Backbone:
């Protein structure tokens, strides 16, 4: 197998999931978002692990992601979080996905398609309480809910909203989340008052789970937290699940004044040993790591030097080293700085770091 590998620590994922379950208590369900190939961790393995560890639902963004899970023999309910096209309805029905619906037009087309297929399609009503992407207005929710419940080819299985700033502890953001939650609670109450049972009520992403206990309702949907990143600074330990490793495929002595890599941006200030690592932006790492990251070899960090290339990068081992060719190096995770540290360095979020690690990097499941 290739030297550059993403180790996926399933035991850590399970511990993160168990810790969430302990906090929410036995009466609530967990939906595990496995969109974008489980944030880069591998949707099929993560889904199987999550369900075995007590999750009840999975969530995807694309119909194709749901189809992949069904193809792997997964039978749990799969929420389709993003709005699909009308043309995708046959596949929604074929793969028994549970779309989140926001409007009457789509509901009616879906119901008609389900009726002519002779199937009953479960749906969750999505209410926009302040995220501004999808969802009906809170005022429209009771009418839409009653409309769904009246359609025999649909099963009204749940009611959801999504929080825009729940990970933030800033007073304005805390207040905004409180406002979102009260709009949601009120809409759910009005659905009930209208004589419609709202099904599974859910709102909490990782931030909601961590900071807003009143967002837990019947089910929580934490994603990034289960993959090991608590971005809130609150008291909840999550273990990073992905570890990106490679090997040193070449080591050479470089003389003072010699330049390395494209553009000759780095000129060696002294005689030194340089290691070549077979990982680059062609693996989904950012080229902004050029001269801007350190890799862990044994128990020490060594700086990347020169331009970060498509398939390779270079680390400076220093003028004296006993590090040998073929040794292992950690790019992030494990004992090395995490994907969250790399994200901070690159002014982004760990979601983007792990999602971007692409197909060229084999996932190796451990634990
Ligand atoms: C991705 C997503 C989540 C999970 O969000 P995290 O920030 O990773 O916890 C929850 N709900 C919806 C609708 C999402 O799209």
Residues:
């Amino acid at each position: 197998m290739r030297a550059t590998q993403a180790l996926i620590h399933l035991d850590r994922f399970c511990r993160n999931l168990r810790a969430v379950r302990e906090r929410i208590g036995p009466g609530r369900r967990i939906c595990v978002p496995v969109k974008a190939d489980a944030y880069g961790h591998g949707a099929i393995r993560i889904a199987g692990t999550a369900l075995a560890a007590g999750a009840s639902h999975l969530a995807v963004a694309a119909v194709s992601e749901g189809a992949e899970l069904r193809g792997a023999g997964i039978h749990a309910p799969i929420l389709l979080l993003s709005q699909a096209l009308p043309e995708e309805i046959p596949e929604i029905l074929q793969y028994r996905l549970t779309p989140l619906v926001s409007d009457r037009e789509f509901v009616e087309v879906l119901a008609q398609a389900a009726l002519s297929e002779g199937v009953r399609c479960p749906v969750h009503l999505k209410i926009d309480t302040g995220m501004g992407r999808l969802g009906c207005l809170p005022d429209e929710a009771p009418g839409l809910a009653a409309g769904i419940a009246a359609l025999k080819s649909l099963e009204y299985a749940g009611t959801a909203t999504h929080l825009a700033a729940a990970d933030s502890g800033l007073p304005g953001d805390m207040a905004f989340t409180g406002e979102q939650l009260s709009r949601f609670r009120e809409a759910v109450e009005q659905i009930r008052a209208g004589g419609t049972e709202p099904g599974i009520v859910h709102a909490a992403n990782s931030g909601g789970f961590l900071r807003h206990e009143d967002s837990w309702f019947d089910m929580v949907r934490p994603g990034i937290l289960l993959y090991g990143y608590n971005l809130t600074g609150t008291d909840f330990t999550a273990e990073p699940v992905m570890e990106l490793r490679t090997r040193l495929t070449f080591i050479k002595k470089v003389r003072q004044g010699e330049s390395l890599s494209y553009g000759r941006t780095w000129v060696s200030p002294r005689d030194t040993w340089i290691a070549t690592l077979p990982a680059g932006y062609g693996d989904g790492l950012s080229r902004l790591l050029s001269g801007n990251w350190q890799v862990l070899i044994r128990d020490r960090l060594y700086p990347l030097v020169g331009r970060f290339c498509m398939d390779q990068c270079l680390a400076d081992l220093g003028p004296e080293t006993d590090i040998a060719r073929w040794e292992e190096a950690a790019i992030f995770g494990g004992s090395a700085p995490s994907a969250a540290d790399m994200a901070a360095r690159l002014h982004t979020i760990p979601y983007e770091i792990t999602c971007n690690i692409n197909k060229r990097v084999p996932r190796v499941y451990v634990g």
Remarks:
- Residues 171-193 form the longest helix (23 residues).
- Residues 108 and 148 are 9 Å apart (CA to CA).
- The two ends are 19 Å apart (CA to CA).
- The chain has a mean pLDDT of 98.
